[in-house]
Amino acid sequence: MKKVAIVILNWNGQKLLEKFLPGVVAHSDFPGAEVVVADNGSTDQSVAYVKTAFPQIKVVQLDKNYGFAEGYNRSLEQLDAQYFMLLNSDVEVSANWLQPLVSFMDDNAEVAACGPKILSYKDKTSFEYAGGAGGYIDKYAYPFCRGRIFTTLEKDQGQYNTQEDVMWVSGCAILVRSRLFNELGGLDGKFFAHQEEIDLCWRFKNFGYRVVFIPDSVIYHVGGASLNVGSPRKAYLNFRNSLLLLYKNLPDGQYRKSYCVRVFLDSIAAIKFLFTDSLSHFAAVFQAHRDFKRMRNSYKDLHRHYMKTARKWEHKEMLQCSVVKAYYIHKKKIFSQLNL
Questions:
Q1: How many distinct structural domains can be found in the chain?
Q2: What is the Cα–Cα distance from 340 to 333, expressed in whole angstroms?
Q3: Do 141 and 204 lie in a common domain?
Q4: For residue 233, what are the CA distances in angstroms to 10, 13, 230, 242, 284?
Q5: Is 71 exposed, middle or buried, given 0-12, 13-18 or 19+ CB atoms closer than 10 A?
Q6: Which of 194, 221, 248 is the endpoint of a domain?
Q7: Residue 115 lies in domain
Q8: Most CB within 10 Å of its CB: which of 41, 173, 310, 337?
Q9: 258 and 192 part of one domain
Q10: Are 147 and 160 in contact (CB under 8 A)?
Q11: Edge-to-edge, what's the strand order for the sheet holding 152-153?
Q12: How far is 80 from 102, CA to CA, in rounded Å?
């Protein structure tokens, strides 16, 4: 068994691999570490490039694009390592980025996952949208980070250089304990992409494990390599999957209350899209709610199982009010202004 498998999921990303894979290989000279490229049915020359430029790298080839979540599930089941490091292909790693994460997991058996500080590749003085300095969530399943609330990104001035238990760490660079990943069902393939790591981390926490931000590890993320920020498809997945988060991870009573508020808040968001973005974004919100209702029945048995077996429902890393209200009405634009 390897100590850690650093798994980069690729789909038609030859240019990203050419740019960032050499750095990952150079800075992952860690005892027992293995770099793996998992290919999601690419039609470009990604696989040929990896096999030619880095013949020592293991390549897992899938027959089609299964999306982020299921692509990782199908790839990881073919690997044998104590830890899985899920790493996006559009990430620049820094020297000694891996050791602080692995060492922390070695010393803390109750930790299921941890992640690094994520700064922007385009502006290395700023936090990056995907995860900043660790992720949180409000009671209506709107995610935010230390360093980023909605579209407001903070400069990194060392204000979050503290190790903290968080609600989630970003899937662009998350180290998970493979045993727990497998025992608790891995990523939810039905999510396809976006927020599947939040679901996984929330599940870890509901079953009594910790998720931790490690500031000594730093990476730089491009972001939007698969779906850009303005994509209606991205909006659809974010709205739909956050509704699935509520249903899967909250007790019934809390879910019903939170869902009613989400319907109201998402209706406002749809109207805002109509006047500021496009008809496609407006439609994406309603399509997300429609498809969530269709999908919900398929989760009923799993939901009942979680209700019976989960150990913990209350988490101090969950904001017990609306981050939407805090941000847009009370003008609390940065993490330190929130009451957490």
A1: 2
A2: 14
A3: yes
A4: 19, 19, 9, 14, 7
A5: buried
A6: 221
A7: 2-221
A8: 173
A9: no
A10: yes
A11: 152-153, 148-149, 143-145, 135-138, 318-319
A12: 16
- The type of residue at 50 is V
Q: Taking Cα atoms as reference points, which of 76, 80, 56 lies closest to residue 1?
A: 80
DSSP SS3 for 317: coil
Residue 225 has pLDDT above 60, yes or no: no
Give the C-alpha separation, 46 to 6, whole Å.
17
- Is the same domain home to 212 and 94? yes
Measured in residues, the chain has a length of 340
168, 193, 199, 203, 275 from 241: Cα distances, Å: 15, 9, 9, 14, 24
pLDDT tens-digit map of 114-147: 999 999 999 999 999 999 999 999 999 999 999 9
Quote the tokens at residue 90: 């559009």
Q: How many angstroms separate the first and last alpha carbons of the chain? A: 40
Q: What is the pLDDT of residue 339?
A: 80
Q: Report the pLDDT value the prediction gives residue 179, as an integer from 0 to 100.
A: 98
The structure tokens listed for 32 are 């027992």
The residue type found at 307 is: M
Alpha-carbon distance of 59 to 47, in angstroms, equals: 8
Same-domain check for residues 249 and 203: no
Closest CA to 238 of 172, 285, 189: 285
Helix axes 232-249, 300-309, angle to 10 degrees: 50
For 265, the 3-state DSSP assignment is helix
Q: Distances from the Cα of 235 to the Cαs of 37, 88, 96, 126, 143, in angstroms? A: 28, 20, 35, 23, 14
Q: For 83, which DSSP code?
A: E
Instruction: Round to whole Å and give the CA distance between 77 and 222.
Output: 28
The encoded tokens of residue 291 equal 């498809």
Domain co-membership, 280 together with 328 = yes
DSSP H/E element including 308: helix 300-309
